[in-house]
Design brief:
Helix 2 crosses helix 4 (about 45-60) and helix 3 (about 35-40) packs across helix 4. This protein has helices spanning about 1-10, 15-30, 35-40, 45-60, 80-95, 105-125, 130-135, and strands spanning about 30-35, 60-65, 75. The protein is mainly alpha-helical. The chain has a 3-stranded antiparallel sheet. It folds into 2 domains: about 1-100, Arc Repressor Mutant, subunit A (Orthogonal Bundle), CATH 1.10.10.10; about 100-135. The longest helix is centred in the last third of the chain and has 22 residues, at about 105-125. The protein is globular, with a radius of gyration of 17 Å.
């Protein structure tokens, strides 16, 4: 509970967890479609439109029309959004600084393999193959 409560404090920029995930993903992949995020978060396109609309209003994300298909719109992180995402990562580093210091290499290895197994189980249960996204995080 302490870790969850501490992590929640990271989201003090009035960003919800799904909004932060979108921002984080765009920081690593440059441009993506709303459909990609709807699949990633397992929500409707209208929910993504709502989430990304708020990110656009804040100046963190911009919408870019496809040059080849005007019906397709891409989302791209702005410089301001990138700065916010970097600030959130720095807060996470401060939050977790020292957390792993008392763990041996063997314990860390076991922890990582346990998380990988858990993620694999969750992916099999959901049946939607989000393994690629989880590994990018």
């Amino acid at each position: 509970m302490t870790l969850v409560a501490s992590y929640a404090k990271l989201l003090d920029n009035s960003l919800t967890a799904p909004q932060y995930l979108i921002l984080q993903s765009l920081a690593r992949q440059d441009m993506q479609t709303s459909s990609y995020f709807a699949g990633m978060l397992d929500v409707t396109l209208s929910a993504i439109t709502n989430l990304t609309g708020k990110l656009v209003q804040k100046g963190y994300v911009e919408r870019i029309a496809s040059e080849t298909d005007r019906r397709q719109v891409f989302l791209r992180i702005t410089d301001q959004g990138r700065a916010v995402e970097e600030q959130m990562l720095e807060r996470y580093r401060v939050l977790t600084d020292g957390v792993w210091d008392d763990f041996s290499d063997k314990e860390l290895s076991l922890l990582i393999s346990s998380y990988e197994k858990m993620i694999g189980n969750l992916e099999r249960q959901s049946g939607n193959g989000k393994q690629e996204y989880a590994r990018k995080l």
